[in-house]
């Protein structure tokens, strides 16, 4: 009895089916299985030995106090008469002096620093503001707006920060958010984003109102953010400005009332404030040789004198040591489910340590990276760069996603939108390779047989 015919398949077809099946199984598992983010990566560079000194108790990353035991004391500060005061490095907020920095107090017209910050984020310089009845009727410090008066955001910002116009603050709020109440909500939202945990706003001008308060530390944080906005920085450094307005064309000179800018070396801002409950308040900025310090004094009878004393204390006794420049590439960060397994990261701000002059310490840099998943936005925070003094964390700045090869990180790390299209593409490429191999092998065998036949004939 003849045996049944046996089906014979070419070896390359069997191999192709086996490889394709394995490839499909791996692809399906990789797509459906959970991939948990890895633990945050923490690593440090080798310490840099630099002849500097270490900071004191007040030197710390906001909300992260430093253990003072391995650190020597700072020079003795001058007597300050404020109820609360602080002196910080503008670059990263390192504290050089603090007195009651977390005491909640009213801040009067220093409120307008936050008003200007939110206004500039939402209203361009060439926008036109029309004064409402509510704005024109705002009491006390005023630019004497008339109902229906028109002026640009450029000019309104000068009235707000130089003359400290309360009516201008209301007009700015209504333009930016539609109403004062909506604008105040934005102010509180911005304070929370900046990490100001002891600040609450009730109005955009700073007139006395229950529940309207801040601290010296929080106000310094707000000032640091404001001074990074070129429009604000330009205005607060002026001694006066002439504006254009549509109705009251004689009242156009906006004078700076700080009594600090134009009278003290390096003074370039920022804002005064006064009410009976708040007393004299002042937020100052001073820049010398590219290094900026920011001071805050609240309820201070000698606010100009004490601000000058704090600035002299900072510049005469300390010096900055830059660990990383702003925007400097410092490493890479892993991306979960991304086309690119790693993306470059950079510092969002300059990382520097301010230390007393003529002392010695070991400086180091540590990076703390968070697990992130695609897609990643350019500039998205992915971790922190931490400055170390004698191994102790002192200051930190955010690490953010950078760009790669001229393409936005968001595009480089965007995960595939579906499973089957890339799967079919990969399978087609694999099939093409195997078929090509099959026919190359056949051509090779044919050529070899032809040579043998030719050799027999010859």
From TrEMBL:
The active site of this protein is located at 109, 112, 164
Q: Which reaction does it catalyse?
A: Preferential cleavage: (Ac)2-L-Lys-D-Ala-|-D-Ala. Also transpeptidation of peptidyl-alanyl moieties that are N-acyl substituents of D-alanine
Binding, substrate: 271
Pathway in which this enzyme or protein is active:
Cell wall biogenesis; peptidoglycan biosynthesis
Give the first-level EC class, as a single word.
Answer: hydrolase
Q: Which GO terms describe its biological process?
A: cell wall organization; peptidoglycan biosynthetic process; proteolysis; regulation of cell shape
Domain Peptidase S11 D-Ala-D-Ala carboxypeptidase A C-terminal per the UniProt entry, residue ranges? 318-407
Membrane-crossing segments per the record: 12-29, 427-447
Q: What is its EC number?
A: 3.4.16.4
* Matching InterPro entries: Beta-lactam/transpept-like, Peniciliin-bd_prot_C_sf, Peptidase_S11, Peptidase_S11_C, Peptidase_S11_C_sf, Peptidase_S11_N
For whether the record's keyword set contains Signal, the answer is yes
**What's one Pfam family the UniProt record gives for this protein?**
Peptidase_S11
What the record says about family reads: Belongs to the peptidase S11 family.
**What is the protein named?**
serine-type D-Ala-D-Ala carboxypeptidase
């Amino acid at each position: 009895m003849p045996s049944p015919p046996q089906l014979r398949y070419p070896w390359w077809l069997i191999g192709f089916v086996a490889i394709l099946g394995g490839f499909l199984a791996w692809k399906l598992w990789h797509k459906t299985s959970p991939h948990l983010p890895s633990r945050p990566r923490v690593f440090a560079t080798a310490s840099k030995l630099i002849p500097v000194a270490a900071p004191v108790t007040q030197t710390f990353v906001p909300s992260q106090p430093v253990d003072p035991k391995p650190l020597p004391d700072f020079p003795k500060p001058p007597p300050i008469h404020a109820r609360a005061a602080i002196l910080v490095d503008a670059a990263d907020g390192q504290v050089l002096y603090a007195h009651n920095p977390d005491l909640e107090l009213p801040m009067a017209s220093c409120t307008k620093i936050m008003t200007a910050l939110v206004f500039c984020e939402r209203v361009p310089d060439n926008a036109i503001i029309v004064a409402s009845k509510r704005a024109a009727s705002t009491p006390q410090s005023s630019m004497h707006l008339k109902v229906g008066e028109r002026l640009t955001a450029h000019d309104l910002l000068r009235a707000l920060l130089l003359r400290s116009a309360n009516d201008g603050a209301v007009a700015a709020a209504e333009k930016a958010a539609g109403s004062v109440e909506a604008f105040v909500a934005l102010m509180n939202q911005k304070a929370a984003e900046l990490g100001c945990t002891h600040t609450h706003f009730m109005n955009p001008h700073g007139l006395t109102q229950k529940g309207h308060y801040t601290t010296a530390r929080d106000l310094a944080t707000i000032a640091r953010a404001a001074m990074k906005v070129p429009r604000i920085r330009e205005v607060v450094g002026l001694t006066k400005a002439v504006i254009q307005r549509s109705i009251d064309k004689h009242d156009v000179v906006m004078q700076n009332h700080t009594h600090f800018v134009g009278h003290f070396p390096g003074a370039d801002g920022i804002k005064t404030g006064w009410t009976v409950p708040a007393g004299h308040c002042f937020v100052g900025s001073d820049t010398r040789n590219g290094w900026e310090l920011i001071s805050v004094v609240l309820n201070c009878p000698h606010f100009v004198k004490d601000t000058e004393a704090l600035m002299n204390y900072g510049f005469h006794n300390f010096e900055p040591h830059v660990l990383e420049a702003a925007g400097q590439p410092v490493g890479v960060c892993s991306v979960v489910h991304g086309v690119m397994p790693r993306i470059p990261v950079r510092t969002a701000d300059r990382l520097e340590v301010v230390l007393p002059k003529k002392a010695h310490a070991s400086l180091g840099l540590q990076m703390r990276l968070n697990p992130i998943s695609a897609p990643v936005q350019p500039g998205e925070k992915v971790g922190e760069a931490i400055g170390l003094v004698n191994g102790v964390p002192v200051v930190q700045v955010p690490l953010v996603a950078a760009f790669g090869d001229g393409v936005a990180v968001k595009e480089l790390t965007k995960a595939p939108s579906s499973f089957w299209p890339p799967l079919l593409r990969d399978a087609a490429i694999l099939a093409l390779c195997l078929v090509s191999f099959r026919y190359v092998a056949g051509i090779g065998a044919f050529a070899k047989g032809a040579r043998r036949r030719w050799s027999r004939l010859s």
